[in-house]
Design goal:
Blueprint (H helix, E strand, L loop, with lengths): L2 H8 L8 H12 E2 L2 E2 L4 H4 L9 E7 L9 E4 L8 E12 L2 E11 L1
Parallel strand pairs: 2-5
Antiparallel strand pairs: 1-2, 3-4, 3-6, 5-6
Length: 107
């Protein structure tokens, strides 16, 4: 194998899905001590890749109150956006931490 072949394999792919890496950055920016705070989502929008758009959604599952809580920041998302999501802990009120789904969509 030539150096050109090795270097070509190491170069970033322009069509790579940016959502998983963006999700990691958004989770770090919106969290404190491993718990996401919904009011920090707007600040997490700064994690968008250069030249791209970002939408962040945080949603709890129905719990004891039998209702879903939803927070969203960013512009409306086209159907063609790349997406990634993970389960996080979210502070819904002082002393009240619940599981939630954190989703990012990048286009």
């Amino acid at each position: 194998m030539t150096y050109t072949g090795v270097l070509g394999d190491a170069m970033p792919e322009p069509n790579r899905n940016p959502a998983p890496a963006t999700l990691s950055g958004v989770e770090r920016a919106a969290s404190s001590n491993g718990v996401v705070t919904p009011t920090r989502l707007v600040g997490a929008l700064r994690m968008k890749p250069e030249g791209r758009h970002l939408n962040v959604t945080l949603a709890t599952n129905p719990g004891d109150e039998n209702r879903t809580r939803l927070w969203n920041e960013g512009p409306p998302t086209p159907k063609t956006a790349d997406a990634a999501e993970t389960i996080v802990s979210v502070r819904v009120s002082p002393g009240n931490i619940r599981p939630a789904r954190l989703r990012v969509e990048v286009w």
